[in-house]
């Protein structure tokens, strides 16, 4: 029994010592954590200094039987206060960083950290209820006159601190890995795989095809050499997450453990698809890992270029129907943020979108189409009720807009020959009625001088467009410019000046 009590004291000594030293190594983080638990700002700094000193004092007292009972009482009180604070925060729906071991290890308050605290408190209370006179062997005693317990405790302490130091070094290594990933992603802005990339048409790496656009069709090989279509991987009844990678991309390989973790967590909700290039063997060596993966190989980077995935690693979310559901996420940090948004968004909606603010206006994507009722050039009343039953492209136009004029011939041609399975078209514009009649469109043109309807759809410039589904819901973000409007229709067009 005396040896058991000694072991408990030594264990608690290590816990309180590591906690105190860890907090002293990160005083700023300790102060922030204290505030997170509701300590007033004027008391946060003194409390963040007092707490680690108290923990180290408790740790030292637990070494000696003469004062260990008092240390156990103080430790129990401290642990019970921590436990109560955690329970209160969890009841309020908060998850502040417990900062339990300071810079050595910290995590948000959770059931795991709560149970750990309770376990430590039980051990500490065991010492308290054992009584002041029954605190186990004195570390200065000797067994058979051979080895002193002081030597044993010194060895235990050294081993404990070595483990603590190793853990601390591991955390530093992880932070350095994160920094290296970011540096490598920055390097990719000018190089990839040792090949110079022309940047005359530099675009923001977070820009891509409009949300709601269908993914273009491509014929690709998987790593077994089997020919497949890109869109065939979407028909699985759940969204797909496309990862654009490369066997020459070091950040891609560094991110793979996290991707495998996400794949395991979301395997019943998200279909993971990797799009790479190069040889099947080198891709398997880089990305094979421990979980099954769908890896499709481009001849060069044709799919990535079409979907505007300029760099690797990049991720793109696609709806079950093959429409784009997010902006591209370039780099590990952006991908991690995308995964968190996907988790927060849930999977109860008919469509999954990661919304983004457009032109300073609130996006209308995912919302019911705004009510409107206007006359077309023939005097026929067209309203939002006419959107039901079939997809409709709502385009915002101007007869005086040169970009609109450049697009008009192709739009007219498409309007005349589009099939029954293609969307309807409604053109919102303003200006001279006769000039618009010269457009010679089959589809209705609705004139409105103040453009209230276009603005209600979130459009502020010309040419732009949104797609409305057969249920009258806006299912795309605002597509600005000819290329993006054609992308909403699933068509590739070249810009003509």
What key phrases describe this protein's structure?
497 residues; 7-stranded mixed β-sheet; Glutaredoxin; alpha+beta; 3 domains; 5-stranded mixed β-sheet
Task: Report on the architecture of this protein.
The protein has 497 residues and is of the alpha+beta class. It folds into 3 domains: 2-174; 219-345, 3-Layer(aba) Sandwich (Glutaredoxin), CATH 3.40.30; 373-488, 3-Layer(aba) Sandwich (Glutaredoxin), CATH 3.40.30.10. It is built from 14 helices and 18 strands. A 7-stranded mixed β-sheet has the order 6-5-9-8-7-10-11, covered by helices on one side. A 5-stranded mixed β-sheet has the order 16-15-14-17-18, covered by helices on one side. A two-stranded antiparallel ribbon has the order 1-2. It is elongated, with a radius of gyration of 32 Å. Mean pLDDT is 80; it is low at 143-147 and 188-206.
